[in-house]
Design goal:
TIM Barrel; Non-ribosomal Peptide Synthetase Peptidyl Carrier Protein, Chain A; alpha/beta
């Protein structure tokens, strides 16, 4: 697969950009587990052009994570063009435009998925950004604003005409948020439209190897993007790649393996971020690493409430001692009590 001049392996797996989740530490964990292409957390154009500390910090890219994209969102063309110039200076492989975020405070301002209510402005903005930067520009969007406006086939063709180099489609409308099943049939219609020449990346409900292979096979997408299913399960990339290549399912990592990965993730979070923020943003990952363990509620609460690194490491050591080689998918496994 190619995006512009960027060569990516066949059947590539993309890590979706997610606010306060896909930071450098999590990107590193996903990369070593097989993610082929990743993005920064999505960045507000308003925050970037005003030199907001949090927005500027998100531009940080490290050699270990390449190829990388920077994803921008906003509702004003001039601000988006200016922020695209700033993002380009950070040295990513591409600039991605977010026309898919359904969060109310973003969409109601006309940014993210809110742009689906103003397709002419979406096309005008995309055209301006493509002309303004030298890097490839890509877009992520949804099927439409609601059930009455699922116009993604037409929108995809018009976006392609602006000069974008790839399109990612989340298989829900904005009105659905993340509820209900993703509609991959419409994603397939875009991919199989005779007018579409750019790569189409599908997104939505990919929760494991079997679903990933089905979507590649049934709908012919060029790549798959995975978001929520990676939280607490960054090895999902490894599992999918192995299944696509070998046709066999890998076993769930043991608790020992998960503790090792959680400790590595924690150390990297502390390396990339300062103070308690690294712990705040790690807590959701730490608790989800061990989802499905029996009698885990009390331990999970501790992981979600402590702010002391040493205490977290003691809790993780206790998890290792109690559950050891247990695998959550093996309901008959014997574990320490």
């Amino acid at each position: 697969m190619k995006i512009g001049k960027i060569n990516i392996r066949d059947y590539p797996l993309f890590l979706a950009p997610m606010e306060d989740i896909t930071d450098p530490s999590f990107r590193m964990v996903c990369k070593i587990n097989g993610a082929d292409f990743m993005y920064t957390e999505f960045i507000s154009s308003d925050g970037l052009i005003r030199d907001g500390k949090k927005s500027v910090k998100k531009l940080d890219i490290y050699d270990f994570e390449r190829p990388m994209g920077i994803q921008l969102y906003g509702h004003l063309i001039d601000a988006m063009v200016e922020s695209a110039h700033i993002a380009e200076e950070a040295g990513p492989e591409l600039i991605d435009i977010n026309f898919g975020c359904p969060v109310k405070k973003i969409a109601n301002r006309g940014a993210g998925a809110g742009m689906l209510r103003n397709i002419p402005l979406m096309i005008e903005m995309t055209t301006a950004i493509v002309k303004a930067v030298k890097l490839p520009v890509t877009v992520k969007t949804r099927l439409g604003w609601d059930e009455e406006s699922k116009n993604i086939v037409e929108v995809a063709e018009r976006l392609q005409d602006t000069g974008i180099q790839a399109l990612t489609i989340h298989g829900r409308t904005r009105a659905q948020l993340y509820k209900g099943a993703a509609n991959w049939t419409l994603i397939g219609e875009v991919k199989n439209s005779p007018r579409i020449k750019i790569p189409i990346i599908g997104n939505g409900d990919i929760d494991g190897p079997i679903k990933a292979k089905e979507m590649f096979s049934r709908f012919g997408v060029d790549g798959i993007m995975i978001g929520r299913a990676t939280v607490g399960r960054p090895w999902i990339f490894r599992d999918i790649k192995h299944f696509l290549e070998k046709g066999e399912l890998l076993p769930e990592p043991t608790v020992n393996e998960k503790v090792d990965l959680a400790l590595f993730h924690l150390d990297k979070s502390l390396q990339f971020k300062e103070g308690k923020r690294s712990i705040f943003e790690m807590r959701r990952h730490l608790s989800n690493y061990f989802k499905g363990l029996p009698d885990f509620k009390e331990t999970r609460i501790k992981l979600l409430t402590t702010l002391e690194v040493d205490e977290i490491k003691i809790i993780l050591d206790g998890i290792r001692k109690r559950w050891g080689d247990f695998r959550t998918e093996d309901k008959t496994a014997v574990y320490a009590v």
